[in-house]
Amino acid sequence: MNLSVAWKIARRELRGGIRGFNVLIICLALGVAAIAGVTSVRESIARGLEREGAALLGGDAEMEFTYRFVTPEERAWIDANTDAVSEIADFRSMVTVGDERALTQVKAVDGAYPLIGTVGLPDGMTLATALAGRDGMPGAVLDGMILQRLGLTTGDTIAIGGVDFIVMAELLREPDNASAGFSLGPRSIVSLDALRGTALLAPGTLFETAYRLDLPDGTDLDAFEDLAKSQLSDGGFRWRDSRNGAPGVSEFIDRLSSFLVLVGLAGLAVGGVGVSSAVRAYLDRKTGVIATLKTLGAERGTVLMVYLLQMAVLTTVAIILGLILGGLAPVLAAPLITSALPVPIDIGLYPGPLAQSALFGFLAAAIFVLWPLARTEQIRPAALYRDAALGLRGLPRARYLIVLAVLIATLVGAAVLFSESTRLVLWTFAGIAAAFAFLVIVSALTVRLARRGARATSLRGRIAARLALGSVGGPGSEATSVILSLGLGLTVLSAVGQIDSNLRGAITRDLPSRAPSYYVVDIQNDQIDGFLTRLKSDPGVSDYESAPMLRGVISRINGQDANEVAGDHWVIRGDRGITYSAAKPDNTKVTDGTWWSDDYTGPPQISFAAEEAAEIGLNLGDTLTVNVLGRDITGEITSFRNVDFSGAGMGFVLTMNPAALAGAPHTHIATIYADAEAESALIRDLSRAYPNITTIRVRDAIDRVVSILEGIAAATTLGALATLLTGAVVLIGAAAAGEPKRRYEAAILKTLGASRARILWSFALRSLLLGLAAGLVALLAGIAAAWAVMHYVMETDFVLATGSAIAIVVGGVLLTLVTSLWFSWRAMRVRPARVLRDAG
């Protein structure tokens, strides 16, 4: 192989222009741009979070305790090792005005809050002034949503958990809101001193305390964390520091962007079909040149290198265009992105994301370019001349198939390396491969059936139908490229549409039919009997459940660190609800082991949720250490039981015998199933009798989750539409490449006396057949992918979204029809004499 000769020939051919490679360039540029845009935004968010980590967190570090304040000894240690400390309590409660109530997330703060940043209030009012209140009544600042919902204005009196406050201002900006995570209610800020000693912050009540730390300059955060965990509460707290001030936001962005990058890779796969088709069409036109070069003594490797170098140049141009588009898009859309996300963002051009996108682009291009190029390398000059009219055929030689396998493995490995979820990447690539193979099989089947149909005696006299079927089943058919390009794009869109419909349906339709009307938390021990009596006496209450409620962190499994044993399982990530019961509840089904006796007073025993235990790898006889209110309780797992979380009813992963939690302060939780017309009066009576309780309407919680899902659905749908756009470009390219063939067909048919209407109808039938095949395959593949996601990832039932399914099929047919007819009409306008003269 002579590389210099190959480059000289390649350069001369490129001087003739890049006609015919528009599809290749556009498809690669769109795929690379999509990935570059997503990864650039993710990098911008990561840089912003890193820069503003301390401001987002509200300090250099934070120690969060579950439902208790630190002891005097612990506070003394914190004060001695920090420059400043801010103490915060965070909990849910109800804002009450007369008979009107609204759920709120209360932040009770001390005078040092915020250590970093400022709270935004109208007219330059300071937080200290607002919380001081007036006329002897403490003040509160409320989110505008609460003010609007309850019709409040400055100076009005409200009650939070039975404690009166005066509304001093609307909360415009909370400096550390990104670190707060998910909340069901809008924010209220009050003074911590105004709530000390009240039932809202009583031992056992559901609240969290956070101690924001201002550390001396140069403090080693890892060393300080280790020191704190060794000297305070046996590490029974959660630690965060400024290196990741908003971990929930960061994790969410990483997972969403990983998913969108995979959608972008699906778009590259769709575009790859167009790339391969463009290269094949180009080589078909160059068969005479290739044959001549071989006849003159050019080696097969040299000929292959000629066109490989050409494709490398064109691929580089396309990727550069894609990087420019993807890199500049976030910069141009910076105001929109900044306003849409509640985190600081450093928008800019970052080499890392662009290099990652370029790598994906080059690998995808190499995979789809090598296939047609390799087929050229093995064909003899005589065969090239003989088969010039039919195009290149046959499989590449084995060594090229091995290279293709290595390139695909490299692409998958790169996606795994840059993604947060290896499992998601592998399943996505498996799905793309399965869909690709399915579409290839269907396209081959379509060609075979069309060929047979064109010869069927039943179609005699139906000239348009026979012409359409003959074209689909004949040599040089565009069936494969059309069904592949359109089918892959529609498959992604179909899967996203079905998943979106099922998620919305599971939350807004299925869940309310079996979910409770209200959750009630923070019911004190001396209130539970009266509370349950009120529920029993109300005919509108169809059912209710109650249980003692504590919260604890599973810190050790069989004496080892729980995170090392269970990894990132959700049961270990934070504090979990814990209850106790002497007798086995009637609705509890023990799947393995035995429940303790009613009068058992021995060492702590644990009944654990069976499904979660299997995921973690727990067995009967294993021990768990649970930190409850700063005290470690170690118990043995003596039984597993079924726990159903799907109905939003009451379910506890971990239940213990009563003696194990004796003396631990706690409250009770209840779920109420009531008729809609009885809800208002019931909740009003309960709130008056027990002002400290918090009632959470399940419908409000569902609406909150739905609003988040809508944002996710919008992002994923945009990604799917980008993939479909790439498919449309490929489809247009295939139609454009087939225009000369249509022009020749039309000229022959016109010469033989066919009317324009009949010829156009035959072209339309051809498009309808291919569009229908692509749409039906995409529908089946998309439904299968959506079912897998709902069943294995979301672990919920799958329901076919008929409307979305019909739209996919109809959309595929119409897109193919419109594209094909446009180029067919162009072909019809050329006079037969000119076409036949040029062909001759």
From TrEMBL:
| Source organism, top-level taxon | Bacteria
Q: Which residues form the ABC3 transporter permease C-terminal domain?
A: 263-375, 720-830
Outline the extent of the MacB-like periplasmic core domain.
25-227
Q: Does the keyword DNA repair apply?
A: no
Location of this chain's protein in the cell:
Cell membrane
Residue spans crossing the bilayer = 21-41, 259-283, 304-334, 354-374, 400-418, 424-447, 467-493, 712-738, 759-792, 798-825
Please tell me where this protein is predominantly located.
membrane
Keyword entries, A-Z: Cell membrane, Membrane, Transmembrane, Transmembrane helix
- Protein name in UniProt: ABC transporter permease
Entry keyword Transmembrane: yes
